[in-house]
Structure formats: C-alpha cells, structure tokens
C-alpha cells in the first residue's frame, strides 16, 4: 500500500458573482458534481464549508476568486474523475464561467496518507508551479511526477487538449 495520496487544487476567478445568470449554470451543477466526486473510486477528501461546497470559502480578498481542493488515492483515480466522468462535460464549459487565468490554476502534489492539505498549502503549490514549472513539489497531469520514493521520469497522462488550460 502506498504511503501517499495525491492532492489537487484548482482555482478560478468567476466572470460574475453568484446569482448572476452568467455563472448560474456553474452553481446549478455544483451539488451534482460534488456528489459525483464523493462517490468516485479513489476519492479521499475535498475542501468544503458547512454548506457542502468550497465556493463560499474565500481564500483571498477577491470575492470572485474561488478554490477547489481534493485528495485522491492515486493520480489515475483523480484523472478518471476529471477527464472520464460526468465532470468532464462541466469542465469543458469553464471558459464560460471563469476569466482566463494569467497564472497556474491547477496543481497536483503528493501528501502523506492522512494529511489534509490547507488552502494555504494549495495556494503555495500554485505559486511554486507558476514560478518554477512542474517539479516533484507541484506538477500537472501533463508532467506528473511519481510519489516520493519512486524513481520514475515525469509522465504525460495526456489529458484531452480541449480540457487543458484556456485557448
């Protein structure tokens, strides 16, 4: 059994505040997509407030900035949820709801089993990825590093191009 799990953070700045028709579809799908994550193979934990989602947790002073974090048993189980489940069709619409990011908006990293990452930890991983590119400290599905103690070159998990970044 592995001593590590895979943590992820993804962030974005909404194009409009909650309640605005421009982002209503995003909020309408939130409960369903969170339930899908919770029931997915390999799911361990996700950031959530008392309301059951992370959109009302404000990690910065910007009220339109939202963060999502979760922990998964393996990179493969997270990848399957993100790119091979009902989540994928919602992910493909993110350009409608979020501004084009100017910095890294998703980061992955290995955590010891049982560790619950903080929002500050996740934001620091984004900062590191943005400044230094993919390293064992913070990486992406395009350049996934093996868990600590495993010697392996970075792997391109080949996420669908239409789901990677903003065009």
Account of the protein in words:
This protein is of the alpha+beta class and about 170 residues long. The chain has a single domain, classed as Alpha-Beta Plaits (2-Layer Sandwich), CATH 3.30.70. About 30% of the residues lie in helices and about 15% in strands. It contains 5 helices and 4 strands; from the N terminus they run βαββαααβα. It has helices at about 25-40, 75-85, 85-90, 95, 120-130; strands at about 5-15, 45, 65-70, 105-110. A 4-stranded antiparallel β-sheet has the order 2-3-1-4, sandwiched between helices. The radius of gyration is 15 Å and the shape is globular. The termini are far apart. The mean pLDDT is about 90.
Give a brief description.
The chain is of the alpha+beta class and 167 residues long. The protein has 5 helices and 4 strands.
Record keyword descriptors for this entry.
single chain, Alpha-Beta Plaits, alpha+beta
How many whole angstroms does the radius of gyration measure? 15 Å
Strand content: 15-25%
How many domains? The number is: 1
Q: What is the share of helical residues? A: 25-40%
Distance between the termini: 39 Å
Going across the biggest sheet, name each strand in turn.
2-3-1-4
Number of H- or I-type helical stretches: 5
- Count all strands and give the number: 4
Label the structural class: alpha+beta
CATH class descriptor name: Alpha Beta
Mean pLDDT across every amino acid position: 90
SSE sequence, one letter per element: EHEEHHHEH
General shape:
globular
Low-confidence stretches: none
CATH architecture type: 2-Layer Sandwich
From the 3D structure, determine the CATH topology: Alpha-Beta Plaits
């Amino acid at each position: 059994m592995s001593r590590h799990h895979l943590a992820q953070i993804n962030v974005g700045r909404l194009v409009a505040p909650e309640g605005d028709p421009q982002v209503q579809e995003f909020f309408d799908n939130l409960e369903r997509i969170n339930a899908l994550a919770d029931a997915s193979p390999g799911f361990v934990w996700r950031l959530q407030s008392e309301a059951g989602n992370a959109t009302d947790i404000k990690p910065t002073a910007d009220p339109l900035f939202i963060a999502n974090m979760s922990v998964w048993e393996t990179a493969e189980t997270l990848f399957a949820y993100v790119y091979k489940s009902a989540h994928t069709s919602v992910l493909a619409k993110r350009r409608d709801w979020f501004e084009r990011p100017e910095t890294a908006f998703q980061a992955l990293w290995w955590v010891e089993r049982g560790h619950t990452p903080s929002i500050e930890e996740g934001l620091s991983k984004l900062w590191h990825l943005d400044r230094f590119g993919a390293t064992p400290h913070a990486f992406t599905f395009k350049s996934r590093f093996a868990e600590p103690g495993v010697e392996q070159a970075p792997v391109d998990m080949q996420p669908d191009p239409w789901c990677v970044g903003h065009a």
